[in-house]
Amino acid sequence: MKVPGELVELMLREERFTIASHVNPEGDAIGSSIALALALKGLNKDVRVFNTDGVPAVYGFLPYSGLVETVMDGERLKDSVLVVLDCNSLDRVGLDGAECRRVVVIDHHQTVTDFGDVRWIEPDSPAAGLMVFNLLRALGTRIDGDIAVNLYTAIAVDTGTFRYPNTTAETFRAAADLVDAGADPAEVSNRLYESWSEKRFGLLVRVLQTLDIVDAGSVRCAITNVTLDMFRETGTGAADTENFINFPRMIGSVEIAVMFREEEPGCWKVSLRSRGACDVSAVASRFGGGGHRNAAGYRACGSLADLRRGFLEAVQFCAAAG
Predict the structure, then answer these.
(1) Residue-level pLDDT at 248
(2) pLDDT at residue 3 above 90?
C-alpha cells in the first residue's frame, strides 16, 4: 500500500490537527483516530480527536479513549487541519458547514466523493486502521503498545477478526507487527466479544426474535430490526447493536443480512452485510448510502413494511444487473 507523498509532507509540515470520524463509530473509526492522534502527538503536534457520538462502551478499553471529544470549538477547526477518517464528508462526521484550514480525507470505502484538499482513498484496504498503520510507517513514527492495541482493534473489527474476504496477506503482516509492538489478540477478542452486559445480550435476544428469512429473487436475505421501544425496554442504545447483523449472516443459506435500526420515530439506519455475488454497496447507493461490496448501509424514513419492500426490490434489481 503506497501512502501519498503529499499526505506525508503535510503531516510533517503542519502543527495543528483535528481528527474526526463518522457518527455511530465502530472500532475501526475509533481505534484509527486514537492511533493517529497518539502518533502525531509523538511528533509534538497539537492534536485533538472528535466524534459527535463519543466512544461506544465496548471500546472503552482502548488506550487513551478519553482523548475523544464530543464537542469541538469552531475556532479550533478554522485554525487546524481537519483529518476526516473512515468516511469522506463533513455531514458524516457531524460537522456539516464547518470551516477548516485544510481537509484531509483518509478512507477505504468504495463510495468516493471529491471532498477534501488531500484525499487518500483505498477501496481495497480492509480497514482504515491498516491505512493508518502504513501512514505511521511512512511518517517514521514509533508504534508503541498503546498505538498497537488501537490499530489491532481497528483492523480486527473491520475484518471480522480476520474472517472476512477482505483479509489479505498484508493484513496478517500488519497484525503480526502490531502484536510484536504490544497488542494482545486474546485480550482484544475478549473485550470485543466476551464482555457483553446482560442488557446487551437481552437486546440481542429481542432482535433475533424478529428474524425473517426472505427470498429476493434468487438472493436469500435475513432481515432483522430493532426499534426504539426495544432500546427503552432493555435499557440499551444504538452502540449495543454493533455486530448484531453478523449473527443472521451465519446462516449457511443466507447471502445478505440486513438490520433496520430505528434512530427516531419512523426513521431507520439500514445495515447490510453480504457474502454472495450481490454487491450491497450498489443496493445502498440506490437509497443515497454506500460502503463496500460486502458491507454497506443507508438511512431511510417510512414504515418498516415499506422499507423492507423497497430493500428487497433493490436487491432483485442489483442481482439482475450483475
Answers:
(1) 95
(2) yes
